[in-house]
Amino acid sequence: MNAKQLPCSDEKIKSIADMYGTPFHLYDENGIRRGVRAFQEAFQWCPNFREYFAVKATPNPWIMKLLKDMGVGADCSSLAELVLSETVGLRGNDIVFSSNDTPYSEYRKAMELGAVINLDDISHIPFLEKNGPIPEKICFRYNPGPSLHRGNQIIGKPEEAKYGMTREQLMEGIAWAKEKKIPFIGIHTMVISCELSMDGLVGTAEMMFDLAGDIREQLGVTVSFIDLGGGIGLAYRPEETPVDMAELGSRIHELYDRKMHGFEKTMLCFECGRIITGPYGFLITQAIHHKYIYRNYIGCDASMADLMRPGMYGAYHHITVVGKEDIPPTEIYDITGSLCENNDKFAVQRRLPPIEAGDLLVIHDTGAHGHSMGFNYNGKLRHQELLLREDGSIQQIRRNETLKDLFATLDYPGLNEKAEKAEQNEP
Known about the structure:
- Helix 2 runs parallel beside helix 9.
- This protein has two domains: 248 residues, Alanine racemase (TIM Barrel, Alpha-Beta Barrel), CATH 3.20.20.10; 144 residues, Lyase, Ornithine Decarboxylase, Chain A, domain 1, CATH 2.40.37.10.
- Helix content is 31%, strand content 21%.
- Helix 5 links the parallel strand 4 and strand 5.
- The chain is of the alpha/beta class.
């Protein structure tokens, strides 16, 4: 069993809710640090190992600074993520810029920071040459297509994904980089997401180690950088088994020793986001309505705008009713938000203890792709993020969005004044 634990006591959660109001995302600093250390220890056998945090998972500079201080870099896919990384002090080999369909202005910023530029398509080579200087550190994203007989709902089959180059295109790109005497040439892939199968994760490493060997044999290039992507899954359901990081490190170590002679100076990297912050984030919301029709519904003050994954993917997130952990789950509910969309549900036909208005619900494993995937449909405002520090104190690391924030780009007379009055409950 994969026990779903709260980050602190029931009383502490209630006091946080009383002080800050609901809903909010809460991150557990102790948990994040513990998870990062386990990851790093699993790969300490590799002298050039580096984890690059996928900023899109939790793009908050306070979280990024915490990770930077532990030696974690940043995997960026947009200008905003580059600026966040720069702001917390990441530069050069601390950053991998792995984007697609990218405007040149974003490449320019990444090169200004000295980032590793990970090209998604062979056509990006003439695009870079036409618009300005070529990168001094370049990487090529590999899509193995139908030769890889796996995929999942999130990332799909490789041959149906928009990402990466064919093997032939990648070889052509590396030959070009060799001809241009680019000193830093890497390879990258991202073919799985939220993968719990050890064989799937190790298989990706084997594919990339074999590719690196073929590149050296055919082109005489020993790659500087092998990025295995992210994809390490999170056990969202209590009955699922989390990935054993020590076993993963050990199995990849065995492969490395067998296949990677002469690659001692090559960096071995991951770009994980989900496993770094996901298990250590929680969406706390309050039950405010109870509806009995053909099903029983509990309506919350959070919505799909705060956590998109259940509505978008049908993803499971465990729910704890604060203070009722030991009460038998005798009721069956749909747990819903207030969007004008029927898929605005955190749980469907979920067995839970009886829930009353005012109860706090903790939605687990929302620390990655939770707040970051929020949106403003129906004029919903994005909610605050709080960090539970190691000493037990609470730090607000993002305030609640306001109507004034939402309307900031609208130039219409009197709108901001009315927004301020609405938020102050003035007539």
